[in-house]
Amino acid sequence: MKQKINLSLMTLSVLAIFVTMFCLTSVYYNLFQEQVRKDLKIEARMLSETGISRLVENQGFIGDEEIRITWISQDGQVLYDNDVDTHYLTNHLDREEVKAAFETGFGESVRESDTMNMRTFYYAVLLEDGTVLRVSTRARSLVSVFFSAFPVMILILLVILGLCLVLSHLLTRQLLEPIREMAEDLENVPATSTYSELSPFLDRIREQHEDILAAARSRQDFTANVSHELKTPITAISGYAELIENRMVDEKQQIKFAGDIRKNADRLVSLINDIIRLSELDYGGGTLDFTSVDLYEVAEERIELLRTNAGRKNVSLILTGSSCMVTSNRSLLIELIDNLVQNAIRYNIPNGSVNILVEQRGGNAVLQVSDTGIGIPKADQSRVFERFYRVDKSRSRETGGTGLGLAIVKHIVELHQGTIRLESEMGKGTKIRIEL
Ligand code: ADP
């Protein structure tokens, strides 16, 4: 940034100096040219009024070294010239200013010298006796004046470049200081910072910073929860095994304890499966293959498998709707249906029912699972999708819940950029509607 500002400032000043110099020189040169012309005109008028022939006869030399005076006869012969011997001069009728003077009474012209360094200004006037008097003077050309100003220009340039160096150093320091301060302490940057242009950038950084912190916190919470959840069944398994090992239980109890050990082991397996599923969704969700899948067909298949489980609790499963194609991954859909239907069975009442509806609605696939269960209190409804959040911990555990089912559901729906709507009334039931 410093280098960039430095370079821009320098380029700008070099350009500015050249342009200003050129413009100024041109303006002054034009003024100077005007003055030269005016002077020549006055000189010519004065000489013509005094009478050139008389002057020539009386003085032999007229004018000064700066001004050349030429007197031309009607046929173009040079009668007098104060600079060059008339013998060497050719006929002057072809000279632009002389021609004009013969025709209109006066003539003007400017001619560049061979080297381009000098210009000669001519003014010719027709005298009363029909001859022409021409005065001329030499002056430096614009290019020559411009180049003669070069050394001064270079000197000014060097001074300005030096100033630019100092200025750009100060400027960048001043410009970058607030940014440096912000970078040092992102958390405490005032809402209205020095650069309003940076506000969206800052907001975005702050947002990302907060997201990262939140993600880190949730990962920490998750790890703590996982450890806690795993510890419970393992402690139970270890306890039961110890009792059997020490022959502290009779044969009948042993069978019960073996059952408890199996239940806790099953719980561990489901927990681990859910944790693996969640981390797969976290890291590999985007790499899953998405194809066209019939949601109704998958639902039909899963419900058949879950019917036994539902039957054990006297809960009936009813599937309605029709074939519904969705761009998805079959295993994700299985996960989605299983989690929702299992919850609807788990938190149902004896002789309750679960209605599963699959339909196409406005270009979206709809999966709606409604049960006649215990319902979810209003205060918990927004939290049940959090990892390990349970309304009734013991009921969830007793029925084989892990507290991760709805978190997985939410994750899968997000992968499809879909929506979830939950409606629930205590004692009446719960309805979860998903649109993919
Ligand atoms: P769990 O494995 O405990 O069922 P979930 O993440 O699937 O975990 O659900 C979180 C909590 O939401 C459950 O513990 C339960 O309290 C509540 N819940 C989920 N589905 C239902 C439902 N259909 N009826 C009543 N409560 C439910």
List the topology elements.
Elements: H1 2-50, H2 52-59, E1 67-72, E2 78-81, H3 96-104, E3 106-112, E4 118-126, E5 132-140, H4 142-148, H5 150-184, H6 199-245, H7 251-284, E6 291-294, H8 295-312, E7 316-321, E8 325-328, H9 330-346, E9 353-361, E10 364-371, H10 378-381, H11 393-398, H12 405-415, E11 419-425, E12 429-435
Parallel strand pairs: 7-9
Antiparallel strand pairs: 1-2, 1-5, 3-4, 4-5, 6-8, 9-10, 10-12, 11-12
Helix pairs in contact: 1-5, 6-7, 7-12, 8-9, 9-12
Structure description:
By secondary structure, this protein is of the alpha+beta class. Helix content is 56%, strand content 18%. It is built from twelve helices and twelve strands. The chain has helices at residues 2-50, 52-59, 96-104, 142-148, 150-184, 199-245, 251-284, 295-312, 330-346, 378-381, 393-398, 405-415, and strands spanning 67-72, 78-81, 106-112, 118-126, 132-140, 291-294, 316-321, 325-328, 353-361, 364-371, 419-425, 429-435. A five-stranded antiparallel sheet has the order 2-1-5-4-3. Strands 7-9-10-12-11 form a five-stranded mixed sheet, covered by helices on one side. The longest helix is centred in the N-terminal third of the chain and has 49 residues, at 2-50. 22% of the residues are buried. The structure holds adenosine-5'-diphosphate (ADP). Adenosine-5'-diphosphate (ADP) binds next to helix 9 and helix 12.
